[in-house]
């Protein structure tokens, strides 16, 4: 049996820190003889740097961040591994009240449909002209937010490089940035979209779960050196987090989870607002709630499995937007940043259905489907992109070649 150990884990106050917080609050970490200290941070740059210098042994991390570090694209780049995902979905695209009114005037239905919102946004951009360019905030250059936003814009005929200005703002500051008029629009994780709506400064126009359903968002990030030197501790941590994910994913625990997450030391936002985010009951405007399937998936559908096809899709977007060059070596670095082998090793003692493959075709499932696993009961999908495209990691060269920088229509 592993001796008791202490571990310091960095996190940002976001809905998808739930698994980490539950592992500490509900005793799953202690069951594995781990004393887990969670440290709340204010920006993803701080998370990146404090992992690099050894302040954090592990961290709540943007899913593309380990890939960027391993490709040498980040300051203080160190070798990182992502042995576990921390859920699927959870982001939204929120606009200022004035931009919402402009989009509505151009025919937007306001039902979260990405194509509909994109058509209206393109019309607004055309009507505004160069003198009134939209400023859109994302949380980090190497983030799912940046890539899904750009993917959505480009598929709707908007050139992210030419037609808008994209800036970086830390997640908790997004509602204030909208309220002050410093940004017109943002792509951020919950609860900060819902906070903007509740404060009257924003309206949600589409969400990650409609742009790419059941898509990757955050991972557990550790340095490769620490993972190699602390194999038993990392395995124990993954088991604790997996059991926390099971608990978080059970609908009957949503009320208690919302109460935990809403506390000042964690998200510090209204309990009912957090509960709506957990159950997919989103108040996209003050007077309108939409029920969203698979808005934020904590456990089902292999939500914690580090699919290497997810890593390769993020890499394809890094290439698309000029952050790195495509090569066989770079693709291999990206793929191997995610470590399903560590995940399987750690969870082998648990009755967990483990996928039989490391990669899958992304966007191919129109409905839930049973898939091969070490134990019965694993269902994946639906996982479609809103524009109907698919990503086959075995055909990544063709995918990259076929994705023009903006795919104008």
From TrEMBL:
The keyword Transferase does not apply. InterPro entries: NrtA/CpmA_ABC-bd_dom. This is CmpA/NrtA family ABC transporter substrate-binding protein. Transmembrane segments: none annotated. It is found in: Endomembrane system. Gene3D superfamilies: Periplasmic binding protein-like II (3.40.190.10). It holds the Pfam family NMT1_2. It comes from Phyllobacterium phragmitis. It comes from the Bacteria. Keywords: Cell inner membrane, Cell membrane, Membrane, Transport.
């Amino acid at each position: 049996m592993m001796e008791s150990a202490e571990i310091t884990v960095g996190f940002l106050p976001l809905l998808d820190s739930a698994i980490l917080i539950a592992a500490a609050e509900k005793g799953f970490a202690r069951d594995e003889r781990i004393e887990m200290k969670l440290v709340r941070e204010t920006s993803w740059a701080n998370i990146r740097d404090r992992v690099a210098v050894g302040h954090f042994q592990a961290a709540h991390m943007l899913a593309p961040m380990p890939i960027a570090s391993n490709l040498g694209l980040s300051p203080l780049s160190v070798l990182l591994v992502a042995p576990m995902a921390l859920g699927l979905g959870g982001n939204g695209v929120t606009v200022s009240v004035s931009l919402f009114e402009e989009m509505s005037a151009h025919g937007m239905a306001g039902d979260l449909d990405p194509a509909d919102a994109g058509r209206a946004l393109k019309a607004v951009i055309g009507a505004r002209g160069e003198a009134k360019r939209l400023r859109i905030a994302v949380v980090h250059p190497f983030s799912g937010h940046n890539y899904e936003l750009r993917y959505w814009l480009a598929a709707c005929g908007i050139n992210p490089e030419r037609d808008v200005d994209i800036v970086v703002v830390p997640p908790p500051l997004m509602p204030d940035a909208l309220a002050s008029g410093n940004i017109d629009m943002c792509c951020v994780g919950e609860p900060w979209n819902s906070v903007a709506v509740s404060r009257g400064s924003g309206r949600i126009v589409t969400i990650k779960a409609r742009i790419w359903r059941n898509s990757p968002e955050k991972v557990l990030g550790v340095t490769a050196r620490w993972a190699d030197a602390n194999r038993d501790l990392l395995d124990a941590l993954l088991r604790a987090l997996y059991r926390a994910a099971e608990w978080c994913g059970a609908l009957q625990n949503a009320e208690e989870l919302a109460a935990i997450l809403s506390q000042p030391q964690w998200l510090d936002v209204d309990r009912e607002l957090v509960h709506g985010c957990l159950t997919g009951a989103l108040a996209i405007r003050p007077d309108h709630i939409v029920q969203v399937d698979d808005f934020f998936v904590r456990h089902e559908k292999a939500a914690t499995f580090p699919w290497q096809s997810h890593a390769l899709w993020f890499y394809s977007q890094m290439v698309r937007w000029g952050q790195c060059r495509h090569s066989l070596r770079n693709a291999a670095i990206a793929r191997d940043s995610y470590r399903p082998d560590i995940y399987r090793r750690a969870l082998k003692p648990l009755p967990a259905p483990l996928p039989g493959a490391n990669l899958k075709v992304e966007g191919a499932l129109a409905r839930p489907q049973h898939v091969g696993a070490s134990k019965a009961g694993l269902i994946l999908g639906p996982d479609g992109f809103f524009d109907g495209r698919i990503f086959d990691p075995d055909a990544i060269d063709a995918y990259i070649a076929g994705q023009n920088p903006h795919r104008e229509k």
